[in-house]
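Hey,
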Amino acid sequence: MKLIIVAVLYLFFQGANGQSLNKLTIPNGSINYFTAGQGEIVVFIHGGQEDYKVFIPQVELLSNEFQVVTYSRRYNFPNNNEIKGEYGVKTEADDLKALISMLDKPVHLVGHSYGGSIALEFAVNNPEMLKSLTLSEPALVNWLNDIPNCGSWYETVQEKLINETKDAFVTKDTTLIMKELFEFFAGADIQNQIPPEVLSMLKANLREMEALVNSPSGFDSPSPEDLKALDMPIMILTSEKTMPMLTCTNSKLIEIKPQATHHHLLGAGHEMWMTNPKELSVYISNFVKN
């Protein structure tokens, strides 16, 4: 499975270059974004150690029906902002508010992984700026302790992802840093199996991971009660072969919002936007239209 993901990453990033980006000024820096199409606005928020290119297939598949926006978050390629102060979903939600304010009308918001946590934070505090919310396996780490049989994953995140990666960043050795991240997310250090172009892309997005693991609130997110209070149309996307800790939080999402539209992708993993772009574009299109 890991080698399949590597192959998909390689093919994906071979075809995700050459876009002409726009730049938006934010506090203490700027963010780059790409947009195409007209009509209802769909804004995509990428996950950790990714950038705007993850959703270029959605731009290509959906921009004949909607205005599609994909952007690179504060510390992700090609942005070059200096890490300043405490960082987390609240920081990113403020940046997102600047982007949506510039678009000047309510949008359909789609957030994946850590981007899903940002989307939820934004929705809780700015519901009037959204027409709908789509969450694909948001990284709701602080929910794990309160989900039966899932608390051990909270401890694993603290020790294996946050503490060990933080120690690796002190060395400034990107190979060691990537080893820690691969061992957590892929289960093994697979650097020598990844094409140089893909490994370079992942390293170009390390600044975000550095900010996350060094911030006391890096993995905070809104509570289940906050999600329960939202009354906008919501779609939840989950995958069959995702990480066990995400299986925990995915189940909790569906329990809290049983009335939400839900699609479960058989055979897919957490990298669903790279492996199943056409299937997901149909779900997004139908949800936005309805």
